[in-house]
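Continuing the batch. This is chain 6 of the set; chains 1 through 5 are on the previous pages. Same settings as before, nothing changed between runs. Recording input and output for traceability.
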Amino acid sequence: MAKPGATGVTRIINATGYSIKGLRSAWVNEAAFRQELMLIMLLMPLAFWLGDSLNQILLLVVISWLVVIVEILNSAIEAVVDRVGSEHHELSGRAKDLGSAAVFIALALNGLVWGALVGRNLLGWW
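Output for chain 6:
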């Protein structure tokens, strides 16, 4: 059974508004989001300088934005867990730890890709 609500262009407009509201919320409430976004603003011009090909540039851009995407999802998990209750619960802690682990893996992948391309394109390692 379909969920009642807006359809067509109205749904797209509403969804865009919700997305903007979510981005604003992440900026206001999440220091890690702000820090990662500032880092991306520094890295994006470097991606165009460092990348030897369109594929390399896109890889650097996509892997960098992946960190922000995972951070937003982690923040959403934390908000839901905090909404449920403030008392300590093993599953709540596990959910938050898993979200944090996802951010850590995204950051590690980011470092690996950037490091490999710096090694290859600037240092001539491969």
